[in-house]
From TrEMBL:
Gene3D superfamilies: 3.40.50.360. Residues 7-151 form the NADPH-dependent FMN reductase-like domain. It holds the Pfam family FMN_red. One of its GO terms (molecular function) is FMN binding. This is NADPH-dependent FMN reductase. Transmembrane segments: none annotated. GO terms for cellular component: cytosol. It comes from the Bacteria. It comes from Streptomyces curacoi.
Amino acid sequence: MSQTPLKIGVIIGSVRPGRFADKVSRWFVSEVERRDDMETHVIDLSERDLVRELKLTLEHSAAPDDAPTLAQRIGGLDGFVVVTPEYNHGYPAALKLAIDYVYREWRAKPVGFVSYGGMAGGQRAVEQLRQVFAELHAVTLRDTVSFHMAWEQFDDEGRPHDQDGTAKAAAVLLDQLAWWGLTLREGRAARPYEG
């Protein structure tokens, strides 16, 4: 008996022009798409006017184009992988705004991380994000994928130089995401999470 594929949101946390996130996220999405137990849903924060969307929500107004809100998109997913850079020892402000814009929809769902940056490879951003998601009752995964000195790790076509190593790291993360995603989806269905 086959399971319905998990709906996995890949959240691109950088909104800077010329961002390196495009290379990292394209590579990671291609790794997710190799699997038959997951369905990829990319949420690119640079494509959303989060400040305007938040203001409309606070005013109880509808978005004029009736596009699904970020909260609706998050609510319909089974798990997430956040692709984040490290800016000044932290994660991007747009990512914080997006996380805080949503509340109950994060609960009892797994969150993994793909980070990139300089010497620390984005790990300081990930450690801060773990604290934020814990407060939202999300389950963060232990293993991450991290690119230290990221701009040196990819070729001109956007492929990692160490394709075997990065594929193995992604597989570990995605296997954990699959286990937690399925377990928590079944748990939410059997007994809604009220934490």
